Amino acid sequence: MVVLDFDTLYTVASDPLIWEQHPSSDRYLRDQFQVYFDSGIESKGALLALDSRSGRVIGCSRFYDHDPQAKSIVIGYSFLAKDCWGKGYNLAMKTLMLEHAFRWVEEALFHVGTGNVRSQKAMERLGAEKIGDAIYRIRARDWKTTRPRR
Q: Would the pTM count as exceeding 0.85?
């Protein structure tokens, strides 16, 4: 069991390169990250990302804006430690989240900043469809047939 405090996650998030393409590019600053952290706790949808081999905290993501009528949910506010980039961690994290979400909803949306090229490419690798300037979508019915394999 992991007991998380602010400092554990902030240690990962304090790298400015993680946030350089993000609309909130100053989130590496302690006071800015505190706002992010508090909103994650308040959302009750935040998830901690751990390296399954070492148990090390490597980032987080969250579910938010669940719409039971539209049978949709948004996945976002995600970040991973820079040393985890390009190694399948994001794919694994999003796959787990999508598999869980699709038990209850028919589509997952992702808000991705227009300047966040890394996240846009990650959405494409997941098979997400761009449906707006900063919005990507994956439908459960499509996920079953196009789900990326590791």
A: yes
